[in-house]
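User: Continuing from earlier, I have the next pair ready.

Assistant: Great, send them over.

User: Here they are, in order.

Assistant: Folding the first of the pair now:
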Amino acid sequence: MTRTVRLLEITDVPIDVAAVYAAVADPQAGGVALFVGTVRDHDHGKEVVGLDYSAHPTAEAVLRDLVGKMITSYEVRAVAAAHRVGTLAIGDIAVAVAVACDHRGDAFTASRALIDELKATVPIWKHQRFRDGSEEWVGTP
């Protein structure tokens, strides 16, 4: 089985979900799982008014290594992943991953593993600002 990473980026421009999905199109895939993470208006019981994502200079290389390991661990035909950095508003897309597999169950499993590991290991940090004037950094070492 050919396994390819077709789109991989840390970007400061809005993520095009259609492009992420199109990147994994494969006539041999019976299932594509697409996950889109958006900025929500609350966290920890407080109203979020906005946030900023910043990334370590190695973030894209770490993401590339993660995806490389993932495509050897799952029955994946194609993978795409994009994470946004910069100032985002409520409702903006922060991250999108897509995984194409022969079967839907494999696509669900692989995409869940990808987004969970991305959030846990790729050095991208979130700075949330709350309505009450407080703020919080998430994911910092």
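And the other member of the pair:
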Amino acid sequence: MRLGKDLTDKPIITVNDGRHMGKVKDIYLDRNLQEMTGIYLGREGLFRRKDNFIPRASVVVFGVDAILIANADAITDSKETKIEDWVRLGDLIGRNIDTPGGTHLGTVGDVILDTAGRVLGFSLGRVLVDGPIAEQRAIAREVVIDNGHEDGVMTIDLLKAERVTITAESDLVPSNNDEDNPAEGG
């Protein structure tokens, strides 16, 4: 497991010739917040501004010190690929998290990814409640009811969130607070 923020500022190196292609500025997630779709490199151009990114499929290795891509052709721009349905992590951080009844639980602090780029859950930036969520400071992806794209507020199933703990590579287990209830999904 790793946080999305752990990828920022990592150098991007080509495998075929070892060239430094820039640094990760942010990451993109799919609209459903289920997987990473790309790496944001930044914006360039004076008159024709374009966003440069690397699609997730073009990444060879997410290393500890660097991200490796096959070659420089992996870098593309927003004019060549439709990224309107993608969400930048920077836009997701700080999003409010509520229950369906409107109880404010906290805010998104980061995304938790597995080694394949799948979203396992979200770390919390601010926690406004006591209990298992405050202790874990994270919620599993599977407890999200509404991503919050329309109103800017993520809605979660609180009871399920208190039962499910993120442990490793998409393994979700019951938290210690509710050992009699098995985790749902996986």
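Worth noting for the second one:
Confidence is low (pLDDT under 50) at residues 169-186. Helices lie at 89-92, 132-136, 158-163.
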